């Protein structure tokens, strides 16, 4: 009979450790479930930074049931994540096929943009930098993804929009080498139509300004000055 | 009749539908980028503006930070028809400052687009953006932003056109977690204080 309590104790210990292994921070869950008027607030997101939160956000991006939260989760993962989050985000961008709805499409572009946040915090993330550098050329997106945009049926236009997300990400990274890449971006879209080329040039101009400001101010200060309207 | 912010503003005295303490009635023109995802019907526009006005006008009780809530008599009425503006930004997506400026040059106060990735540099995936020229740009419901939150967003962005800032930013406490001008759009964020009301009515 003495073995029974010991067995019960052992079982409880295993269960407890198992629970700890998949521990959820309810604050992270609540945070990504919110509707932010002007995007995910950086300062609040980084307060929740932890290895467990990174795992938790990665799990959300894996779960189809969590699709409404994907855009916030991808953005937050960029804000708090390290280089280990890069494959999660790039795989997430590429995953899926067919015509996406607005929520899923927003999550894809948010994930591309989130790579810029990761690069800011972890400049030595060659996979992120390479993904964004390659993404500057609209034509490269055709081999990366199979899904289509809810906002345009034209795959060339879809590709341009994903290049624009790459441009914005390189801007917010604040990296000097990203600025160099941005300067070469308009030439990579020479085959696009005139409205697309104009959009790329205007977005590159903004991104270069952001890139310089992030380098000067730091990402947190830079973003805190933007979120007020 | 006074011209304010490019909108018709008139004193609401004598309008039976308004509360006794009615203040101002503002006629709001809504326009949309021509695409399915940014579509909004006349009825939806009217319903959202009614909801936003009701949120401002209703006395929701004492706010957690003791600043309000006041019954702020502002009625927002939709102009008769939601018009579509031209194909002025690529795919109805705001990607840069120039896109935002282009959309704001279009007729109307509220402009519905597909996606907002610029409201100041370095941001992405926004629900709304506004300035005091005035101009409001919003998206329809998507992700965590559900249809029932649209009146809160429109009231919030309308506050920005009245030069109101967020009730808190990055350092929000539970005491501020019930304000229309809170940066998170939630159904319980419906309170406005006296100073905010004065801005809404100005």
In short:
The complex is a heterodimer of chains A (229) and B (202). Chain A has 229 residues and is an all-alpha fold.
List the helices and strands and how they pair.
The complex is a heterodimer of chains A (229) and B (202).
Chain A: H1 3-21, H2 26-32, H3 42-47, H4 51-62, H5 70-80, H6 86-94, H7 102-121, H8 126-135, H9 155-173, H10 176-183, H11 185-188, H12 194-217, H13 219-224
Helix pairs in contact in A: 4-5, 5-7, 6-7, 7-9, 8-9, 9-10, 9-12, 10-12
Chain B: E1 2-4, E2 7-11, E3 24-28, E4 30-32, H1 42-57, E5 74-78, E6 83-84, E7 93-94, H2 97-104, E8 110-113, E9 115-116, E10 128-131, E11 135-139, H3 150-161, H4 194-201
Parallel strand pairs in B: 3-5, 4-6, 4-8, 7-9, 8-11
Antiparallel strand pairs in B: 1-2, 2-3, 10-11
Radius of gyration based on Cα positions of chain B: 16 Å
Give the strand content of chain B.
15-25%
First-last Cα distance of chain A? 68 Å
In angstroms, what is the radius of gyration of chain A?
Answer: 20 Å
Give the SSE order of chain A as H and E letters.
HHHHHHHHHHHHH
Please identify the structural class of chain A as seen in this structure.
Answer: mainly alpha
Largest interface: A-B, 61 and 52 residues
Low-confidence stretches of chain B: 1-21
Q: Based on CA inertia axes, which overall geometry of chain A fits?
A: globular
Q: How many DSSP-defined strands of chain B?
A: 11
For the structure shown, list the relevant keywords.
heterodimer; A: 229 residues; mainly alpha; B: 202 residues; alpha/beta; 5-stranded mixed sheet; 4-stranded mixed sheet; globular; disordered N terminus
Describe this protein's structure:
Chain A has 229 residues and is an all-alpha fold. Chain A contains 13 helices and no strands. In chain A, helix 5 (70-80) runs parallel beside helix 7 (102-121), helix 7 (102-121) runs parallel beside helix 9 and helix 9 runs parallel beside helix 12 (194-217). Chain B has 202 residues and is α/β, with parallel strands linked by helices. Chain B is globular, with a radius of gyration of 16 Å.
